[in-house]
C-alpha cells in the first residue's frame, strides 16, 4: 500500500472528504459496525465512513482513487477540532485482529476524545477508538490512543487528579505500551489502575461481544483492578504471563513470522527472516555491504512490506542505478554513465515500480540522527499501519547524540571510534525494541577486524547490542592479506556471509557469489 503525502492533500477539503466517505457507509457496512458493538448514534455522531472498492464484501463499488486505496480495510474516522472542523482522517482497522490505526498526516500523537471528559473523575484510557466508543456507549468516560506507541507528555494535564483505568489489548506490544502509558500518567493522576482482561479476550470490543452482561463483567474487572492496587512501576513477571501466552499463540499461528530476505539459506539460519532486533553487516571497504543491504531491502519491499533506507554515503540515484543493473542485467557503469539502452532501462523501471511503492530512500549525512530515524519510523507506522524494516548505510555516519551542555561535534571527532559505534548501536537497539522493527545497519572494518573475529569481538557495545552480526569476507585464509585482497577484486567473486552472532538462532557460513558489475548477490550453488 503506498502512503499518501499530506502535502499532496492541500487541494482537498478534509470536511468534504469526510462527507464523501460517510456516504459510502452502505447498509451492509453499517450492519458490520453493529456486529462490532457500535450503535447508530455513535456511527452517525462520529461521521464514520468507508472507502470504495473494499475487498471485505460490503464496500460500495465504483471509481476509486488513491485515497480509497489508502483506506482499504479501514473505517474512516474524521478527527475534528473544537469548532468541529476536520483536521485529519484516521483509518480504524475493520479486522478485529488488527490494532494499528493509520492517518493521512501520519501524526497520531493526539488522543481520540469524542466527549468532554474534563468533568469526570474516572477515565478509561483505551488503545483503539472502537474500545473507547464501546465504553462511552455504556455511559462511562473514555478516550483512546490510536493503537501505536504515540505517547505524548502533553497529555498529562488531562489526567491530573483523575482515577485512570488503562485497558489496552493483551498482546505483548500492547502490554509494553500499557506500562509506558501508566509511567506517563502516574505522576499526575490520583490513581492509575491496569484492567486485566479475562484469558482469551483480546480487547474491550471483544469482551462486549463475548459475554452476556458486558457492563457487569466490566464493572467486576474494574473492581478487581482496584483490589489488585494502584499501578507500581516495578511489577513481577507474573502479571505478564497472559501477554507472553498471547504472543506465543500469535507466533504459532504464523502471524508474526520473519521477513524473508530472498536468500533461503540465510532465512533458515534466521528462523524465517528478519524480525525485531539489530542486525549488523560488517565488512572491509568494497566487500559489498551496501549491495547486500540494498538487495535485502528491495526483496522485502517487493513483498509489499515498507522499508526505510537511510543512505548516508550514496545518492538515491546511484542506488536506483544498481537496481536497474540487477533487473536489466547490465553493468552499473553503463547506467550511471547513461550508455545503457533507454528502452531497456524504462522497462526495468516499470518492473521496479512494485518495489518503489514500498521503499523510501532517505539521503543525508550529519542531519540523520537516531532521533530522526525514530521519527521516520513513527510517521511510517502511523500512515501505513506497519512498522518498517529500517536499513542504515552506514553506522559511522550517524552523529552520536549527547546530553545538552556537551560539544557533540567535538566528541564525535575525538572519541574512540569503537566507543562511538557502541553508543550508536545501543541507541539503535533501543529504537528497534520501542517500535518492534528490524534495524539493519552496515559498519566498515579495518584490515585486522575484517579478517579476524577476535579483533572484531573487541568492538565493545557494538557486538553486545547486536542481535545478529554478519561478517562479509572472501573465503581465503585471513592470514594471507595479499590473497585476501586479490580474491576481493574478482568479478564475479566469492564472498562468505559469516554469521558470527545470532542471538536466537544458529551461526554458520553462507557462500555467496558477488556480481559487482551488476550489483547483486546470489547463493553459491551447492557442489
What does this structure look like?
- With 527 residues, this protein is α/β, with parallel strands linked by helices.
- It has helices at 14-23, 27-35, 40-45, 66-70, 129-137, 172-185, 204-210, 214-228, 241-252, 264-269, 289-301, 316-328, 332-336, 342-351, 353-356, 370-384, 408-414, 417-435, 447-451, 453-456, 461-465, 481-488, and strands at residues 49-50, 74-80, 86-93, 102-103, 122-126, 142-144, 163-167, 191-194, 277-283, 307-311, 359-363, 389-393, 438-444, 468-473, 493-502, 508-515, 520-523.
- The strands form three sheets. A nine-stranded mixed beta sheet has the order 11-10-12-13-9-14-15-16-17, sandwiched between helices. A four-stranded antiparallel beta sheet has the order 1-2-3-4.
- Strand 3 and strand 4 (102-103) form a beta hairpin.
Short summary:
The chain is of the alpha/beta class and 527 residues long. The chain has helices at residues 14-23, 27-35, 40-45, 66-70, 129-137, 172-185, 204-210, 214-228, 241-252, 264-269, 289-301, 316-328, 332-336, 342-351, 353-356, 370-384, 408-414, 417-435, 447-451, 453-456, 461-465, 481-488, and strands at 49-50, 74-80, 86-93, 102-103, 122-126, 142-144, 163-167, 191-194, 277-283, 307-311, 359-363, 389-393, 438-444, 468-473, 493-502, 508-515, 520-523. Helices cover 38% and strands 18% of the residues.
Amino acid at each position: 500500500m503506498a502512503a499518501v503525502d499530506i502535502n499532496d492533500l492541500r487541494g482537498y477539503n478534509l470536511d468534504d472528504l469526510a462527507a464523501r466517505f460517510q456516504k459510502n457507509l452502505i447498509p451492509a457496512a453499517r450492519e458490520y459496525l453493529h456486529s462490532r458493538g457500535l450503535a447508530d448514534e455513535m456511527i452517525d455522531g462520529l461521521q464514520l465512513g468507508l472507502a470504495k472498492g473494499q475487498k471485505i464484501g460490503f464496500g460500495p463499488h465504483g471509481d476509486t482513487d488513491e485515497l480509497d486505496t489508502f483506506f482499504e480495510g479501514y473505517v474512516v474516522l474524521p478527527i475534528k477540532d473544537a469548532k468541529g472542523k476536520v483536521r485529519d482522517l484516521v483509518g480504524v482497522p475493520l479486522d478485529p485482529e488488527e490494532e494499528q490505526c493509520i492517518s493521512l498526516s501520519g501524526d497520531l500523537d493526539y488522543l481520540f476524545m469524542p466527549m468532554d471528559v474534563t468533568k469526570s473523575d474516572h477515565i478509561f484510557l483505551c488503545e483503539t477508538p472502537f474500545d473507547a466508543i464501546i465504553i462511552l456507549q455504556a455511559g462511562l468516560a473514555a478516550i483512546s490512543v490510536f493503537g501505536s506507541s504515540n505517547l505524548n507528555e502533553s497529555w498529562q494535564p488531562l489526567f491530573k487528579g483523575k482515577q485512570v483505568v488503562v485497558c489496552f489489548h493483551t498482546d505483548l506490544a500492547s502490554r509494553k505500551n500499557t506500562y509506558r502509558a501508566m509511567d506517563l500518567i502516574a505522576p499526575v493522576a490520583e490513581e492509575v489502575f491496569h484492567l486485566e482482561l479475562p484469558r482469551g479476550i483480546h480487547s474491550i470490543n471483544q469482551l462486549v461481544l463475548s459475554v452476556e452482561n458486558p457492563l457487569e463483567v466490566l464493572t467486576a474487572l474494574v473492581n478487581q483492578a482496584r483490589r489488585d492496587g494502584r499501578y507500581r512501576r516495578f511489577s513481577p513477571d507474573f502479571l505478564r504471563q497472559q501477554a507472553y501466552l498471547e504472543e506465543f499463540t500469535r507466533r504459532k499461528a504464523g502471524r508474526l513470522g520473519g521477513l524473508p530476505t530472498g536468500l533461503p539459506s540465510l532465512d533458515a539460519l534466521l528462523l524465517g527472516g528478519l524480525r525485531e532486533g539489530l542486525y549488523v553487516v560488517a565488512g572491509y571497504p568494497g566487500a559489498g555491504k551496501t549491495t547486500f543491504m540494498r538487495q535485502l531491502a528491495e526483496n522485502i519491499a517487493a513483498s509489499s512490506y515498507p522499508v526505510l533506507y537511510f543512505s548516508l554515503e550514496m545518492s538515491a540515484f546511484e542506488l536506483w542505478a544498481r537496481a536497474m543493473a540487477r533487473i536489466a542485467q547490465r553493468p552499473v557503469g553503463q547506467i550511471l554513465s547513461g550508455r545503457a539502452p533507454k528502452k531497456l532501462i524504462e522497462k526495468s523501471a516499470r518492473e521496479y515500480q512494485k518495489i518503489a511503492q514500498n521503499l523510501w530512500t532517505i539521503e543525508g549525512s550529519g542531519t540523520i540522527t537516531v532521533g530522526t530515524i525514530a521519527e521516520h519510523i513513527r510517521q511510517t507506522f502511523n500512515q501505513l499501519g506497519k512498522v518498517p524494516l529500517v536499513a542504515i548505510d552506514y553506522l559511522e555516519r550517524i552523529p552520536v547524540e549527547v546530553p545538552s551542555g556537551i560539544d557533540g561535534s567535538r566528541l564525535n571527532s575525538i572519541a574512540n571510534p569503537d566507543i562511538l559505534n557502541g553508543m550508536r548501536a545501543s541507541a539503535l537497539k533501543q529504537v528497534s525494541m520501542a517500535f518492534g522493527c528490524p534495524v539493519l545497519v552496515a559498519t566498515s572494518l579495518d584490515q585486522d577486524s575484517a579478517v579476524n573475529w577476535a579483533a572484531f569481538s573487541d568492538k565493545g557495545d557494538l557486538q553486545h547490542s547486536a542481535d545478529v552480526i554478519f561478517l562479509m569476507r572472501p573465503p581465503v585464509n585471513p592470514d594471507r592479506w595479499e590473497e585476501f585482497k586479490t580474491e576481493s577484486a574478482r568479478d564475479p567473486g566469492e564472498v562468505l556471509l559469516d554469521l558470527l552472532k545470532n542471538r536466537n538462532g544458529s551461526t554458520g557460513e553462507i557462500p555467496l557469489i558477488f556480481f559487482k558489475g551488476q550489483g547483486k548477490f546470489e547463493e553459491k550453488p551447492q557442489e
